[in-house]
Every structure is written in C-alpha cells, then in structure tokens.
Task: structure prediction
Amino acid sequence: MEQPQTPSGPVTLVISEVVEPSKVTAYEAWTKGINHDARQFEGFLGVEVIRPRDHDHPEYVVIVKFESYDRLRSWLISPIYRDWMDQSYGLIAARSQQHLPNGLELWFTLPQARSGGHDPLPPPPYYKQVVLGVLAVYPLILLANALLGPLLGGLPPLLGLFISVIFVSALLTYPVMPWLSKSLEFWLYPKAGRR
Result:
C-alpha cells in the first residue's frame, strides 16, 4: 500500500478571512492573540497579515510559515488553535485556507476539502506537477512566439526572450495555471473527493 506523501521543507498556510464589517475591531484583537500563540509553537517561522482596503468587504489575508508540514500540522490540531477557532465564530463571515508547500504550489488552485475542516491537503506528486507545468507552459510558449515573434524580431535576442518570459509568466500565474489545476483536480488530488 502506497504511503501518503508528506511535504518536506518549509510550508506556508495562506488564510483568507472575510470579516463581518461590524466586528473588525474584535477581529483585529483576535488575530493578534492567535498569532501571538502561534509564535510560541516549535517550528514557527513567521506570520504576515495583509489588511483589507475595502472597508465594506473587509477581507484579511494571513500568511503563516512553519519549518515543516509536521510542525504546521501540530499547530493546526493543537487545543490552543482549536480554542482560537472557537472564539472566531461570529467574527468571520467566510474563511478559506491554502497549504503551499513549495513555490510551484502558488500556481495551483487547491481543493477546499479538508479532514475535519482544518488539515491542509498534501501537494500532488512531483511528476504530476511536472506534467501540469508542461501542459501549461508549452502552449503559452507557442502563443508567445506567434503573437510576439513578429514584434520582437528587431530587438536583441536576450531582450526579446525577457519580454516573452514576462508574457508567459503573467498568463501562467493567472488565469492558465489556476484554471488548469482546477480542471485536473480529479487527477491531481484524487483523495480529496473521497474525504
């Protein structure tokens, strides 16, 4: 029986929380408290809170980093974390979490299935990430050559390549990779649907 993969190396948890507009002050106090306690956990590397610009739709993005998946999971299943989650009821209108074990995962749209609502899903196997990357990058390179080739022909080769890379990277990050990973979710995360 194949053992599930456990991500190695530093991991990041990105949490998006839409706060009830009338509860922003209480939420600010709550997030300071939970982040203070997270700092006490072994393996904690840092936290960043990105505050909303739209006061009518206050959406906070919290980025938490741990040195390993196991350290992050220890925090997520701890009684302290559960207690803070209990205290958040009534403050938060909607919450989503994405577990980002490596840089490539930033291009993935992760399914929202969770075990008990708290454990992040492990990433897809490396070979699936490579296949997905090829499926996304190859057509974009062809598109860049077709659209930009005639326009960049008179430029120095390295400059033309640099502009092409910007074009491919911009489309790869959004919308191509999120759309492709969502479309192939059944293959990338076959166990998510069975949770």
